[in-house]
Amino acid sequence: MRRFLFSDIAVIAATSLIxxxxxxxxxxxxxxxxxxxxxxxxxxxxxxxxxxxxxxxxxxxxxALSAAYAKYKDLQEGANADYIPALAKVDSxxxxxxxxxxxxxxxxAGDITSEVSIQSISKVFTLALVMDERGPExxxxxxxxxxxGQAFNSIVAVExxxxxxxxxxxxxxxxxxxxxxxxxxREEIWTRILNYYGDFAGRELSVNKEVFDSExxxxxxxxxxxxxxxAYGHIKDNPAQATDIYTEQCAVNVxxxxxxxxxxxxxxxxxxxxxxxxxxxIENVPEVLAVMATAGLYDDSGKWLYLTGxxxxxxxxxxxxxxxxxxxxxxxxxxxxxxxxxxxxxxKAIADISNALGGNPYVVKPxx
Length: 368
Ligand code: GLN
Known about the structure:
Blueprint (H helix, E strand, L loop, with lengths): L4 H21 L7 H40 L12 H4 L7 E5 L5 E5 L5 E2 L4 H13 L1 H7 L13 H5 L10 H9 L6 H16 L7 H8 L3 H12 L7 H12 L2 E2 L1 H12 L17 H11 L5 H8 L3 E3 L4 E6 L3 E6 L10 H14 L11
Antiparallel strand pairs: 1-2, 1-7, 3-4, 5-6, 6-7
Helix pairs in contact: 1-2, 2-15, 4-5, 4-8, 7-10, 7-11, 8-12, 10-11
Glutamine binds next to loops.
């Protein structure tokens, strides 16, 4: 399997660009006519090569997606989350893969229409919203950006440093981040969050009412975490409202194409490659990706990064998104989770696909 395919395109595209620039700068003197003709031929050849490589890449991506789909379709490992009663009822066989490039090409395999609740993947986008509104320091100072080494809903982790040294991708940090979104009423805050997510997905999203009600009726642990973050001064007021909005953001419904588009927006400097809308401030993208790399798969984040090198985020609804900066956003939905709360098939499929496509940003060619 060849690697560095996406960079091949970039190199060839850059070569064409240089030739074009040289051509434009050449004055149309008679003596240069022969040279000019030669250059034109060269340009045509370059463009043809570029198209060929693109087709080759497309085939390679399609092959990688269908191979991973076929390999893991029948894998029966893990179990649906059941601490939120409505999640236990979701069809465990849902399995869909989607990859979106910064150019807006869409690739998929399996189930692309079933929707699941976004759950913890939402934390990434609320984090981005708070950074856009208040700057990255607001997060690093009030929430922290370090891995906790504990489960996503750990109370021990909050107690250890009195709610500091957390990160916005575990529940304590995420509920605190939600409490930091601006708005003069619950309605205004909620609308801002939902619309912001929609800009990343490229369509209007909505809430799975059953999941929201089910979690709201059983989320006593998150309520306790929010009270603690309030007691330690990280949530400034109304921890109950912050928990309620956080619970609603986790219940937003998404299909695998939505998630891949959200990931691709992060891979593309915060600009949605399908709609062309700048969904978030480009300057905050590196920090968001850094937190994803540090804590996106909870206490298994190190193992994941070791395996793939990709910033990623999982949710107990069964989705995982991963970002290969400048190259692609990828998402998989499959509800059965492992002990850390990460989708079993999604981890395996994304790792295989990304490694096949040379998606690991730490893999570089040495200079000649
Ligand atoms: N809503 C879920 C919770 O707070 C999200 C957790 C997750 O996806 N890991 O427990």
